[in-house]
Amino acid sequence: MIVLEFCVYIIYSEKLDRYYIGTSDSFEKRFNEHNNAAYLHSFTSKGVPWTKYLVIDGLSSKQAFAIEQHIKKMKSRKYMENLKLYPEMIINLKEKFYS
Q1: How far is CA 23 from CA 14, 15, in A?
Q2: Is residue 61 packed enough to be buried (19+ CB in 10 Å), middle (13-18) or exposed (0-12)?
Q3: Contact 34, 44 (CB under 8 A)
Q4: Beta bridge pairs of residue 52
Q5: Which residue positions in the chain have pLDDT lower than 70?
Q6: Domain spanning 6-96 has what CATH number?
Q7: What's the whole-model pTM score?
Q8: Exposed, middle or buried, 34 (CB in 10 Å: 0-12/13-18/19+)?
Q9: C-alpha R_g of the chain
Q10: Which helix (H) or strand (E) holds 32?
Q11: Rounded to whole angstroms, how far apart are CA atoms 86 and 41?
């Protein structure tokens, strides 16, 4: 049985004008960590405060990591913005990387 508890998330820092892409089994917990001063050693500490941009949930861990890597390999701000504008792109990603 495949457990669909993972998500791929994209957060945005207005301070850096950058997106950050990650995978987690608990978005809210991970999002709070990105915005917590206790994690000053991380890249995301430079961009606090981060805002939620997009969450793709209902994924297996394998599927989530594959989608995260795919989005990162695209190296395209426009691609990430299009994911939010065109939900069918997310459906296609879920199908492409179905585990």
Answers
A1: 21, 22
A2: middle
A3: yes
A4: 11
A5: 1-3, 39-41, 99
A6: 3.40.1440
A7: 0.92
A8: buried
A9: 13
A10: helix 27-34
A11: 35
